[in-house]
Write the structure tokens for this entry.
Amino acid sequence: MRNKLIVGLILVIGIIVAFNYLYPEHRSISEESVSFRMSAESLFSEFTEDASQAELKYLDQTILVLGVISAVDSKSVTISNKIYGQFETLNSDLKVNDSIAVKGRCIGYDNLLEEIKLDQCSIIK
């Protein structure tokens, strides 16, 4: 009986550990500290010079990008025609040619559109 209890306890602990490993808590990019702060042009130039090296450096990192809005959509902003930022909710008073600072997670470089993609973005005032 005692051996069954010990095996059952180990099994329950193993299931809990496996569940926490497979389903970790989601990151909140808006609450994380910024790893890199740069202009849209300098970030884009790093990706165009050596995309693989830039992805190693910036991929899945929280970055702050400064630039000028070149396009606004219902849930996205394009900065300096180089950075595409996707938002959960977006403030509607943003206009083209406004200066902006966006904090988000870098998810990579799109070769086809020649844009760097950010998600979970928030505007920094």
